[in-house]
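The freezer alarm interrupted the setup, so I double-checked each line after restarting. Inputs confirmed:
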Amino acid sequence: MVASPSIIDELRENHSRALSQIRDDFQRVMDGPAAVAQQTALIDESAKRLWSRFISNNDHRSHPIALIAIGGYGRSMLFPHSDIDLLFLHEGEWSDKDARDKIRRFSQEMWDLKLRLSPQTRTLSDCDRVDPNNLEFTISLLDCRYLAGDEELFNRLRRSVVPRLIMRENQLIMQKLAEVTNARHSRFGNTIFHLEPNIKESPGGLRDCNLVHWLLLLSGIEKLREWPEPQSLISPAIREQFSRALDYLISVRCFLHYRHGRDDNTLTWEAQAEAAGYRVGIKQQERMAPEEWMRLYFRHARSIQRVAIQLLQEIPASRSSLYREFQNWRSRLSNSNFSVVNGFILLQQPGAAKDPDLLLNMFRFMAEHGLRLGTSTEQRIEQASANLAGKMPKGAKLWKHFREVLLQPHAADALRAMHFLGLLNLFLPELASIDSLVIRDYYHRFTVDEHSFRTIENLHRLRHPQSEWEIRFGELFGELEHPELLLLALLLHDVGKGMPGNDHVKASLQAAWQCLERLELAPAERDTVYFLIANHLEISATLRKDIFDHATIEMFAEKVGTPERLKMLCLLTYADIKSVNPEALSPWKAENIWQLYIAATNQLNRNVDQHTVSTHAQDEQIACLKAMAPGLAQKLEAFLEGFPARYLKTHSSEEVISHVGMANGLADDAIQLDLKKGQHWFELTVVTPDRPGLFAKIAGVLSSWRMNIVKANAFCNNAGVIVDTFYFTDRFRTLELNLPERERFKRNISDALAGELDVDRLIRERSYAGRDTPAKVKVETQIEFDNDSSPHSTLVQVIAPDRTGLLYNISSTFAHHGCNIEIALIDTEGQMVIDVFYLRAGGKKLGRTKQEQLRQELLEILSSP
Amino acid sequence: MTKVEAVIQTSKLDAVKTALQEIGVEGMTVIEVRGHGRQKGHTEFYRGREYTVDLLPKIKMEMVLPDDLVEKAVQAISSAARTGKIGDGKIFLSRIDDAVRIRNDERGETAL
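Predicted 3D structure, all chains:
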């Protein structure tokens, strides 16, 4: 049967007119669901009319064939420029050339209607198997819908073949679907927060909506052994949210198709601005700023992503028994407050969601073990969240909880979960300003909040380095004394972008200061976080200069001040750039950051004595100290004069005031000691007039008590008063468990410094049989002398494997050769000590002969156990 | 038409960009590169290990210009990038047969 040209022309004209009408209707009211329904109905009508023109009933009888809509067309969801997925279903071999010609001409006419046909021809038996390389076809059958032709053939497909296939191959289909989806999510960075998302393919987009639909159908057919209503398998609350999100996305996709004139689903900045202007997907009449409109997009995408991920996680993995064992092990993490089932956390107690302390512990647990919250847990928290605001822990207690979350390896995921549930804004209201915030620039790929979470994620990833750069930066991360301060700084560093004004750094600082006060961080901790936020662009700015020029390094090092802050700033820069977009941290950039870091470290360690405190200069820190202790102003000046500037950078204002007090006490007692127990170690401060062998004696007494010296600083002022600070761990908990021993320990130090105690003999008498733990990493001993960096002293850098008594051995060797330690910077990183000494002998730098003598003796001592 | 390729110090990028914009150069490509001429590499010691950078970080700028703008561009780049020390960089000029604007198939100098 051949359709006459006039009928075809009429069909084309009507089709074209109807398409224009659909477009006009959409542009008037921006109703996407209505547009796709109309589009589908129009194509249905055209297809059926053409089918009846080309294929007669006789044709059906001789060669049963059905015209079936599949895929998106089968779901009755045709977008303006979507492909039209058609299945020509037949049975057995098809030898009739005439029948095939008619199908071909039918398809031709559909193409001539400017419809992008995606036709497939299959037999029933073809549909009854899964091709792992063409899962798409099997999935498209889930949405099969009869259009024309042999209805009985279609019914056999839908009622028999497809359900049977699913019941037989459900696991394979679901696992393949999960693999494909995970790969797609991974291509988009596993986040919905893209600045220009692809609303079809991105996580939380239309593909994920389809995924939810398919997973529900698959599990429904498996359970019920018949076609279910997918909506019946999803809870009403989530169904409503999901449905709203889907309608919104449908409207946005229609808008994009009409705007771009093709199947382009990228929500570019320009498209965002237009969509906001046209109020696409929203009912309100007031104009909406593009940023606000995008927040709405992210909210909907979150709803979809949440359901999709939940359903994906419920698919049993096709993994080995080893993986199943791992999953079982995770179940053993359950405790009285929460249980862990299949990697999801479920709250045990009915009132648990109303207990903020318990919730914070739960997030810490989540961050530690990399778990997810179960749907019921999320719902309970959401229901309870309105009442949580007034019950949240405050001040130091909140910081204690929050700190524990930040330090865990999966902190970023826990923060995202808290953010999603609205809890993060209760703890840190400063973050509300950057919630789903789109900032338009050509570098950032993610919203500001997601960028901040990624910085934390990228730092924790350094624990498992994959590249040479990650190894180097990972070592720095492992050496930090207070990584939680860096992580907090990263969380807050860009909050200013959501506040009015052009200077986001300034705005971030203001917000951070309020936050730090509220969390009751110690003043030194606040200073560090504040410094990091204030200078978070400093390394990037310095990289635009000549980093091999000494003046550049000097200026940068001066600004940073201490090696610890330098490490933190370097890591902050690493994480910040790496989180802009996956390509941002190029090897070129990473190399330059590293070069700047090591040059600045050397500058900080080798030029300590070139910048001394001068109380005559205008200095904010000195002014602050005087303000803290106005009665001590003159004594403060006398005390500080001549100390290296590093002294002020390594001690808090409170510590400096305390040292001034100790210095004042020298008239009564020439040896002033202060012993404190800190969070990680003990801290011993000695203030006394300088004399030969002082440093060695202190180190010796510590060694005799089997204390492990982790860090030490030694400084001397113009008045010849030294402030030596030793940070050590009490390996056998002698001082920790026996308070009276602390006084005996201090007496030993005093007596040693007063010359009333022979330190060598003390060490010999207290030589324990126990040895140090064998080194896991081989550290080669290196001794380097530098007579150029300092104008006053010879620098000696000693790198060696750590062991008890090492510092005593080194410093007593110096003393034995008549060398005075002007400055000491002692550090231990893992099993390696890095000690830098500024030495003078007879008031001068060390000559070559002396250097060589020292080198030989040190090498001999350091190589013996 | 002439292609101008300039390898300069990283610290001079902003100055050279400004100088070129001032004489009317509207398009350029900037690439992060490494290299050296007679300028020696740089070595730092850190924790007993030697870190040597033989190929120093540089910036390469490329632009294709009408012939009548080339000399001005060369002068602008040289003045802005010069420090007088070894390592300032170099400028290379080469002839370009044709240029095509992808958006509308324009060819020749009008495509620049």
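Quick read of the result. The longest helix of chain B spans residues 67-81.
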